[in-house]
Amino acid sequence: MQGHRRQPSIELLELMGVVKENGNEPPPVFTPLSYDYVLVAKLMEDRERHAKKQREYIEQLKIKNFKVTKIIYDNLVFYGIQAPKEIFQKYRYLLKISDACSGTSTDSNISLSTRIRIVHFIINHTQISTKENLRDLMKSKVFETRFCLHEKRKQKELKEEWARWSACLKGQPVTKVRDYFGEKVALYFLWLGWYTFLLILPAVIGILVFLYGLSYFNSSPLVQEVCESDTVMCPLCDRVCKVWKLSDTCSYAKLSLLFDNNGTVFFAMFMAIWTTLFMEFWKRHLASFVCEWRVTDWSESEEELILELVNDAECRPKMYKHSYLRTALVLICVLVMILVIIGLTHFLVVFRVFVAGSLAKDFKSNLGAMLAGAVLHFLIITIMTKVNRIVALKLCKIEETRTFADTEKSFTVKMFTFQFFTYFSSLFYVAFFLGRINGHPGEYVRLAGQWRLEECHPSGCLTDLFIQMAIIMVLKQIISNVFEYFGPLFKKFLGKKKRQHKLQRKCATCYLKDDYQLKEGQELCEGCKLRDWHTNYELTDVDSFSLFNEFLEMVIQFSFTTIFVAAFPLAPLFAFLNNVIEIRLDAIKMVTLERRMVPKKTNTIGVWIDILEAVGVLAVIVNGLVIGVSSDFIPRLVYRYVYGPCVNGTAGVSDCMSGYINNTLSVASMADSRVKFDPSQMETGGTNVTSCSYKDYRDTDFNITHQFWLILAVRFAFVILFEHVLVICKFIASWFIPPVPMHVKNDGLTDKFRRLQEDLKYFKPDNVCTP
């Protein structure tokens, strides 16, 4: 589409500062400095069998007219691989006649990123006589590793414009990233940049909601009622715990009000609409860039067929397979794995019960149990992430998918499902079960008939959820970023220390070749090749799932930011601050600390778009339940308009919530034979008490009151109304905003019309077959 105008959507992103483009200039053509690909092996003088396979594999590449250069350094053997022109000519021809790839660029020159992608496919699908391919040979240690080379000039440009900490608040050169790393990496950074930019508004509103709660920190009648109360509360555990004063938890009540106030209801509704707008506008920006890069009609499956034919013209296509037995087996394994993860949540519950019993004497409201449980949950997440990956990969092997794209999609769905349950099972317990199934003094629910379940503070359970989320989300982000950055940095430093011989400096001739355009067939000398290859070898290894790890981290964060946002209004702020760092951290890591990723072509972010849509719908449901069931919003509402002092007009407007805390408490008397507290537990301040209070709506005979059923009915009514209104709003917003801008559709239509018009010039009536 030469000469076409810039996409307005792209210009809007430039104006916002999300991206930084340089107009409609064509992608630059890079002449390879020192070969397309490098294989590395250990010297195998004592392992003749491995050496024989190594030689046979290299010979297979030479049969395909690949140029292979061998350089030995210390105990390493480097094989520089350069593909012949015929391969790329064949690729261009097949791409041109392909139906699904007809809209893609078919220029006579091929960039180095495209060369790398083609060579990567061919060397991975080249087999020796034993039917082993490169992956098999690497598993058996015939070859140690493989990698494509960084381009020094382009690497320097990306460092100056993008991959540095001082560029944190600048737009991203997404098209340059695409030219170097391929569309897949570019779309990841485009998505992350758009997501980070849109987090600004939720972060600001989240701060306002927090400040709204802070403004009532000392003046709220609810806080004053707790802080000035003489109410004696029942022991939190058996034997060692004693009765305690409600006023002892004054600070906890203040903390609860920061995150459980009327502002969180508005914020949860806003975030549900925000999620929809984020997704719909993302689809529009994606369509604009895909159109700009001319990959709208590109097909991953057809591209793979083209590469298979380029590799071997006599090959047969790999057929689609489906087995109900394998599918059933995978489904059963997934369900078993989910049950195991839920079982770990039960382990966390047991752990919290034990800790609560041990610390209840010193920590009121089970604060110690919450903190200990959150830290243990984080450790379980760290361990289970590795286990989940292994299980997901094994299940993908059972499925026997046709292409790597199918494998990647299947792996993504399974891994995200496992990680979602690992991260959120404990949060669902805290949000919807903690303090609701613990029973009452006459009949406590116990584990194994001995240990009591935890109780909620009279101010509500939402603070427990907030603390759990804050620890997991913030701790995970900090530790993950530290390891992501300093891990590769330390490996790079360690690699230099381990060198047995110092590599020579680049010679003057080759130094100049880096600064001027190379002529056809020109390359570096052997010493400079070795320096270049070894420098890339010392960088941190990357694989096909390296970008998947980055996406998974961000989508999990997106889930935290949207699903339980009613309990943690500051989540968007922490996510925004993390992402500003994350963008540059990932850029620095990819450009300077890691080996170059194999450039992958695509026109979408894949199955992640479906996962994000599912998370958006789930966020509406969960936030409705959090506000309606977990928070005290509904009980306060019912009290204000049905049971409060303002109902009879006996108090001013500012005192309408007076007596609310006391209204939520029930009394247990030691005179009741069902109450079995030890007499030593009923002592406080040197005096014995004959009764204590606990949070519930029960009468003196432990029967549920009418108020409980009224509140329950209003809770369900609110959840249904909240979810239906927001789902309707989401559908209206989705319908109102077209996923593809009209100018993109018109550009595509015009481009196809011109191509058909061009083909019509070669039409000859004699070539038409008549029936």
Automatic annotation (TrEMBL):
Chain ranges of the Anoctamin dimerisation domain: 106-174
Signal peptide range: none
Membrane topology: Multi-pass membrane protein
Any one GO CC term of the record: plasma membrane
Domain Anoctamin transmembrane: 177-746
Cellular localisation: Cell membrane; Membrane
Alphabetically ordered keywords of this record: Cell membrane, Glycoprotein, Membrane, Transmembrane, Transmembrane helix
Main location: membrane
Keyword Metal-binding (UniProt): no
A GO term for molecular function: chloride channel activity
Keyword Nucleotide-binding: no
Family under the similarity heading: Belongs to the anoctamin family.
Name of the protein in its database record: Anoctamin
Species name: Poecilia mexicana
